[in-house]
């Protein structure tokens, strides 16, 4: 069963278990994706804020330049990526590739840069090549996730926040120069101090950082509280067991590339991480990509994920509408 409703400018089709869908139909006065995006910019953003995200099908996006033009038309300007947890390839116009992550491993639900003081309010994705198997970008309603998580777990994270510990190296994740936009130690230290990040240089030139953040924040438009973090995604217990065992063997349990904790530094149990991921899955909407698709995700209202996949896949990403949370 499905329903549809008309906004002043868009027909948004809502199907259970799938993201809201808009079918774009070029017209003589809107002959290309950029003109279409400009006409429906406000309606698209309002739909994403209401539902968490919206999938636009029919624009026929075909190359990075066209994607950058559409992203900028919708957003008014894109953000540079900072503090990324995985390597991205930059394209002209402020667009990036998807995070470099093993294709056979899923990226579980997360809110982009929720560990940074400045983070995007809006995420945009464009599919240039759909994987033949898997690879969907799912979204999960952050208000529903918050409401369905165990009350005692929510209360603790609301009180303490959450802690992210990172150990930067040149082997896994983003290297220093990419994550901070420079390899100059003084500049990195200045950035860390300005962004509530404790840091410690390691023998051999590595960097260990600790940042404590809110786990729940209010949506800037609706005022509704939303579960907003990467507690589960960046935790060791979300990793494939063989991958976790390998990383612990190579780096040691205290020096994993990234790990998350309760705000007081206490480790999370596997059961706690599993509960969070189970609630995410119960509230996930997903639709297989088709080449040319566009998706907008309100980064507070919804978390997003990436399924494991086989074959070739190219999905470009844009981050926009920067917001800033207060440091804990």
UniProtKB/TrEMBL annotation:
Give residue ranges for domain TauD/TfdA-like. 27-318
Q: Please indicate if the UniProt record lists Oxidoreductase as a keyword.
A: yes
Membrane-crossing residue ranges in chain numbering: none
SUPFAM superfamilies from the UniProt entry: Clavaminate synthase-like
Gene3D superfamilies per UniProt: Clavaminate synthase-like (3.60.130.10)
Q: Which keywords belong to this entry?
A: Antibiotic biosynthesis, Dioxygenase, Iron, Oxidoreductase
Identify the cofactor(s).
Answer: Fe(2+)
Annotated GO molecular function terms are:
dioxygenase activity
The superkingdom of the source organism is: Bacteria
InterPro entries recorded: AlphaKG_dependent_hydroxylases (IPR050411), TauD-like_sf (IPR042098), TauD/TfdA-like (IPR003819)
Q: Which PANTHER family match?
A: GAMMA-BUTYROBETAINE HYDROXYLASE-RELATED, TAUD_TFDA-LIKE DOMAIN-CONTAINING PROTEIN
Q: What's the name of the protein?
A: TauD/TfdA family dioxygenase
